[in-house]
Design a protein that fits this description.
Layout: H1 11-29, H2 34-55, H3 62-69, H4 79-96, H5 107-118, E1 138-139, E2 146-148, H6 156-169, H7 175-189, H8 196-210, H9 221-227, H10 229-241, H11 247-282, H12 288-300, H13 305-312, H14 316-328, E3 332-338, E4 341-348
Antiparallel strand pairs: 1-2, 3-4
Helix pairs in contact: 1-11, 2-3, 2-4, 2-9, 4-5, 4-8, 5-8, 6-7, 7-8, 7-11, 10-11, 11-12, 12-13, 13-14
């Protein structure tokens, strides 16, 4: 019997889909500068990579993840955690190649995603890119209780074949709904020994990217899941508790994406405002170093001499001279960072 998901499009799902489409329209229409977008995309990639691997047990902080993904050496972290994070970024880069492409998602695509994710991680016992040949289990990480037993290994190839065929034929279904169904069905089949959760979330993102719902690659759905993991696991388990009806899971999935869209629109509107500020300041005449630093200042709110040096790639004396010039021209002013930290900082006037 072919794969045929069971679900109902409820008013809650409909409302979320309408809001998502509205933000999609906003992002298509708004004119955001390429460098602002690139900055937001970089931050989104860091957040998505960190939170998706964090769900699966990596112990990295967000700051550590950011430094690792920026190519910095971070002491005192697990090399496996570091590798998993870097692998996830590579997998995100892989699915970015599918932006707007109509190529079908086939067995090879899924296997390649998994291979990128688990290669070289934890002894490679996850058999990268190959469907499992043994029975696996989903275990509560706290109690070690088995909460779900996936299908037998002999069933996996044909279940995955039926599933990928359905994904490519579901042309009359909203890509958002297809992405949600795909994410659940993948973790339900649990086709690999390990790495199924990460692969499922990437597969869902891949479907959105392919169908024009990439939202400029600014959403970080794993952040939503990681903030309340019990709710995430409960939403997945709700399908099995309700005779494989996916409605409750889909309500959770689309609401998570909707909340991300609301945040993205707010960030987009803030960027428009920030760019307006920058253009206004640039009219007085800035050198390239000052322009970079003012942009950073607009985003962060404050700027130190050390930060100016880092952003502008200059020596301290040059940074101090540039900042003094901006103070004299009444672009910025000097403030103490806080009552307990008298370090000199600069803010916009």
């Amino acid at each position: 019997m072919s794969f045929s998901p069971k679900y109902t499009i409820t008013p809650k799902i409909n409302k979320a889909l309408v809001e998502i489409e509205r933000v999609r329209g906003f992002l298509d229409a708004v004119k955001l500068k390429g460098d602002w977008i690139a900055d937001m995309q970089e931050k989104a990639l860091i957040l998505e990579s960190h939170h998706s691997t964090h769900i699966e047990g990596t112990a990295l902080s967000l700051e550590q993840a950011k430094n690792i993904l920026e190519g910095k050496k971070v002491k005192g972290v697990s090399r496996n955690d570091e590798k998993e994070l870097l692998n996830y970024k590579k997998a995100m880069d892989f699915i970015s190649r599918y932006l707007g492409k109509g190529d079908p998602i086939n067995d090879g695509t899924v296997r390649e995603l998994h291979k990128i994710l688990v290669k070289g991680v934890r002894g490679e016992n996850a058999d990268p890119g190959n469907y499992r040949k043994i029975q696996n289990y989903v275990v509560n990480s706290r109690t070690r209780e088995v909460v779900y037993t996936p299908p037998a290994p002999l069933e996996v190839p044909h279940l995955m074949r039926e599933f990928t065929e359905w994904m490519n034929k579901a042309k009359d279904t909203s890509p958002i709904i297809v992405a949600g169904i795909a994410q659940f069905q993948f973790v339900h089949v649990h086709p690999f020994i390990d790495g199924n959760g990460r692969t499922a979330r990437l597969l869902s993102t891949l479907i959105l990217y392919k169908t024009g719902y990439d939202f400029k690659r600014l959403f970080t759905i794993s952040e939503y899941y990681d903030k309340d993991r019990p709710a995430y696991y409960q939403a997945i388990q709700s399908v099995r508790n309700n005779s494989m009806d996916m409605t409750a899971w889909l309500e959770y999935f689309v609401d998570g994406l909707r909340s991300q869209m609301v945040e993205i629109q707010a960030k987009g509107e803030q960027l428009i405002k920030q760019d307006g500020q920058l253009q206004k300041i640039k009219k007085i005449g800035l050198n390239k170093r000052q322009e970079k630093a003012i942009k950073r200042l607009i985003i962060k709110g404050t700027l130190s001499v050390n930060e100016y040096q880092s952003v502008a790639s200059c020596i301290r004396r040059t940074a101090q001279r540039d900042l003094g010039e901006l103070v004299g021209r009444k672009v910025i002013k000097i403030v103490a960072k806080s009552p307990t930290d008298p370090t000199k900082h600069y803010v916009l006037l």
